[in-house]
UniProtKB/TrEMBL annotation:
<keyword id="KW-1133">Transmembrane helix</keyword>
<keyword id="KW-0472">Membrane</keyword>
<keyword id="KW-0812">Transmembrane</keyword>
<protein>
    <recommendedName>
        <fullName>Nucleoside transporter/FeoB GTPase Gate domain-containing protein</fullName>
    </recommendedName>
</protein>
<feature type="transmembrane region" description="Helical">
    <location>
        <begin position="37"/>
        <end position="54"/>
    </location>
</feature>
<dbReference type="InterPro" id="IPR011642">
    <property type="entry name" value="Gate_dom"/>
</dbReference>
<feature type="transmembrane region" description="Helical">
    <location>
        <begin position="6"/>
        <end position="25"/>
    </location>
</feature>
<feature type="domain" description="Nucleoside transporter/FeoB GTPase Gate">
    <location>
        <begin position="42"/>
        <end position="156"/>
    </location>
</feature>
<dbReference type="Pfam" id="PF07670">
    <property type="entry name" value="Gate"/>
</dbReference>
<feature type="transmembrane region" description="Helical">
    <location>
        <begin position="145"/>
        <end position="169"/>
    </location>
</feature>
Amino acid sequence: MLNYIWFGLMFISVVVGTLTGRIDAVTEAAIDMAKTAVEIAIGLIGIMALWLGTMKIAEKSGLISIIAKSLRPITVRLFPDVPEDHPAMGSIVLNMAANVLGLGNAATPLGLKAMEELQQINPNKNTATNAMCTFLAINTSSVQLILPAAVVGLMGTYASEIFITTIIATGMST
């Protein structure tokens, strides 16, 4: 269905651009946005590679097990269907930690890894488990103790006057 919507939007853009004599602007915008999409994708590939590599090092060194054990009283209650020593528990904990610290780009690959590991212990591969739904709900709520790093960087760059109000709004939303 989404493919039809995108096709419709592109078709309408070309028709309107042709009728108004601005097809060159449509073409230029399409090329510019394709370039922007590639730049964003390359940046995300770098971020994902960094954090998945960091996670693999933490997993091999035993750091994930230590963190997971320290948070076991909470995670056991939230995810009773996941075995305590399963790698999914470590990925869940790291994802939650990255979200709490406002590292959204770091949390994304960790969340994907956690879902992948939760799928491995899923008896019915076509249906989400309770653990998957709970994990999704926690991620969607985006509990953060620290303002997202990207937002802080942008606010610092532009010397934002609404810095304090943004921190208050973020705190109240979590």
